[in-house]
Amino acid sequence: MLRKLQILLSAQAKVIISYVYDVGNYLRYNGDSLLVPKKERLYYRIIVDAHSIEKGLSLKDRRPGFGQEKIKRLMNEVSSYDISLGTFPLEMAVGALRAYVDLHPPGEPEQPFVEKVRQFVERFNGLDGVAFTGGVQSAVLPIGGPALTLLEGLQCRRSVRYFDEQLIDRTTLLELVRLAQGAPSQCNRQATRVYLYQGRHQIDRILALQGGARGFSQSISNLAIVTSDTRAWRGSNQRNQIYVDGALFLMHFLLAAEALRLVACPLNLAVDSRVERQIRDVGRIRAGERLIACVALGPMAGTAIRFARSPRRPIEEVVSFVTEE
After folding, report:
1. Minimal CA–CA distance to 163: which of 68, 284, 269, 302?
2. What pLDDT does residue 164 have?
3. Which of 22, 159, 170, 192 has the most Cβ atoms closer than 10 angstroms to its Cβ?
4. Is 264 helix (H, G, I), strand (E, B) or coil?
5. Which domain holds residue 261?
6. Cβ neighbourhood burial of 35 (10 Å; 0-12, 13-18, 19+)
7. Helices (H), the chain
8. SS3 of 293, please?
9. How far is the CA of 234 from the CAs of 133, 191, 243, in angstroms?
10. 106 DSSP β-pair partners
11. Are residues 255 and 179 in the same domain?
12. Per-residue confidence (pLDDT) for residue 138, from 0 to 100
């Protein structure tokens, strides 16, 4: 009995030590850490702020002059950016700002601010080797028809932020989850769960807590929350697997929606512990399950859609071929 207790206490101590390591690592290298050079922090801050502008541009009912404080911050960030770290943040930000200017024709009340943005964008005209890829993109997609192939789904998946407000039937929702269950799971634990919501009041309460669906929340009539059960994992070495398994399931869920010709938008659940508890209460989610993400989904609202370009980093920045020494 004593031996079993020693083994148990040793295992729990390793969990604590591993989480202390995680905390130290995060404090040292997170995007707010003063130990990370400012120019490196700016790389990701510019991408995030530029994407925020792209999201606003992609909404069905865009508000003229939106996001002025965020745009001012983005322009300051771009002005301070060291281009030697790579041109991608610059390409994304200036492209998004150009699209913002194009949205506002001359004569609108917001024109003085838009003119400042236009002058800022013109500073980058003629910059050699830089393609300004940020902004929005429009497409006409077929409604109905056969399910997409895997390659088609991978190539055309986009986050869409306006939907036909009709409810998805339960047969289709069950098929969607069944397809997502094809995701790999460590030792086949399958600890991921999906909570589905179609009640207006409950969806509104969850989205108000999530905070990332402003501008299109009223068109969301079908909402999913993906969770992963902590009970499935043991020991310090598995402490992060809960999120790996949950993320793999989430990606399968999004691709399955694409295959079934539904449109979807993942909504992050990067919230503090207090809000996480509130979402769990409103969503009636079992204690011990960690929240992975929300997904808004539904049929397309017509065939013509507009979505954030969300350009991808150059492949050379993503891949490292590691050779033997």
Report:
1. 302
2. 86
3. 192
4. strand
5. 142-302
6. exposed
7. 2-29, 38-58, 68-80, 88-103, 111-122, 150-156, 170-180, 200-210, 241-259, 273-283, 315-318
8. strand
9. 44, 13, 14
10. none
11. yes
12. 82
Residues in the chain: 325
Burial of 203 (0-12, 13-18, 19+ CB in 10 A): buried
Q: Does 98 have pLDDT greater than 80?
A: yes
pLDDT at 111 over 90: no
Tokens of 2: 């004593």
Mean pLDDT check: name the lowest of 170-184, 205-219, 302-316. Answer: 302-316
- The phi-psi region of residue 28 (left if phi > 0; otherwise alpha if psi is between -120 and 50; otherwise beta) is alpha
Q: How far apart are alpha carbons 95 and 309 in whole angstroms?
A: 10
Residues 112 and 186 in one domain: no
Residues 85 and 121 in one domain: yes
- Burial label, 175 (beta-carbon count in 10 A; 0-12, 13-18, 19+): middle
pLDDT surpassing 90 at residue 99:
yes
Report if residue 48 sits inside a domain.
yes
Q: How far apart are CA 22 and CA 25, in angstroms?
A: 5
Nearest to 226 by CA among 261, 266, 256, 199: 266
> What is the domain-level CATH number for residue 177?
3.40.109.10
Predicted pLDDT of residue 143: 60
Torsion, CA 267, CA 273, CA 278, CA 279, rounded to 10: 20
The tokens of 272 are what? 């503090």
182 & 201 share domain = yes
